[in-house]
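Section 4.2 – Deliverable D4.2 (structural model, holo form)

The reporting period included a commitment to supply a predicted holo structure for the target in complex with nicotinamide-adenine-dinucleotide. Inputs used:
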Amino acid sequence: MLEQPKIDALRQQQISARGHLIDGQSVASSSGKTHDVISPIDGSVLTTTAAGTADDTHRAIAVARAAFEDGRWRNQPPAARKRIMSRWADLIEAEALEIAVLGVRNNGTEIDMAIKAEAGSAAATLRYFAEAIDKIFGEIAPTAPEFLGLVHHEPVGVVAAIIPWNFPMMIGAWKLGPALAAGNSVVLKPSETASLSLLRMGELALEAGLPPGVLNIVTGAGSVVGEALSTSMDVDVMVFTGSGATGRRLLEASARSNMKRCYLELGGKSANVVFADTKDLDEAAKVSAAGIFRNSGQVCVAGSRLLVERSIHDEFVAALAKKAASMKVGDPLDITTKSGAVNNASQLQQNLEFVATAQSEGGKLYQGGKQLLKETGGYYMEPTIITDVAENHTVAQQEVFGPVLAVTAFDDEAEAISLANSTVYGLAGGVWTADLSRAHRMVRAMRTGVVHVNTYGGPDVTVPLGGVGQSGNGHDKSLHAFDKYMDLKTAWIKL
Ligand code: NAD
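Output (structure tokens):
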């Protein structure tokens, strides 16, 4: 149960200047420079983080490499590694409110979501992968009797993880859980605008007993720290969540350097398809509104395109608009807020520009569209609905990553499928229908990594998340996530 007075006390706490976390120590940037951490709640400067340099990054990679080579982590008995990672999850859970408030002050996600989706989900994810450590076996191949073919699963070495601003703890844990459980060392780079909760998570890992040097965190600009990681000759695997533009640069950097494997979780333009036979249209409207407007639309799988059967279009859009209007937008540390702050000023500007472009291309502004609460100094935007969106409109093709819903009517299932698959993305989607066969046909027909049926959002760590097309490659979550962090080695033995 969230208690407002506790949150109000925590939000007043001073946050000391933060260094990188390298070799178990907090260290300043080699340049001596720092980066102001702006709170999207009111535009104030919360604290500073180290402005990482290429030298800092190379030092962290070297430390991670040394930790991997000397086996201080990977050679510990599985039960010992499992104990440490489970203790880490316990420590995060014990501090869930403190760390969630810290994260919200930094990135603007509403606290009722952050407590579950950040602290809660990070702890659950780490525990899931900790539990798996002593349950992953190698293989014995079915060879001719005079041979023995053994398949070993080995950690890849040094993993670089680059994380975005939305849900940094959750997405961080999606990478750290399987990477560390597999025995690797990691250098993690948080987003410039969401570093604080990840730095705290790193400290808690040390407290739990993770040996120094196994997890290193370097803060700073993508163009400096991210670039140094992606062009490094000594990083074995790069895992990334963020925009397509950055993903493309990482692939180029890999090709220019050591051809490190690069796994990308990118953006989406996910279609939420509502058929007229949906049993509970009111529930569909409520969940669909939450599916685009929670966290101000800064959700990779957000249902940002609503495809709705023409016969219920007007009724359904009106119902959804009503639900959206009832979602409180504002201070993310108010426990009644349902849509917090946009993470930064330039993202807010970009959201507003998308609305203007949508209108200039023929979309109709049905509701919202404006900046809110300017007087706070923070970055807030109305939940925005644009109807009459055609397939080729910018707002139907490009990810906004903001609280903007594009609505298009369709006449039959074939048209719904064609519209749903009409972007370069393929991250997520949704189908609302009472017809079981249609639900299964739609799941098969939609080219995405996940399809929600009669719900939207919320799959847990047991199932994979990954995109197709320009939404990326590889999967976070579930045991399949280990594939990114383990190599197969064959031992071929003549008996
Ligand atoms: P972004 O690509 O701008 O930044 C992501 C990270 O990459 C940050 O840490 C940033 O510093 C770093 N970076 C930037 N330039 C870099 C460079 N040249 N080299 C290396 N690193 C660099 O993305 P963002 O704006 O922080 O996050 C929003 C995006 O993330 C959206 O597109 C969203 O859909 C996507 N996202 C995807 C998922 C998923 O699971 N598929 C989840 C959450 C967010």
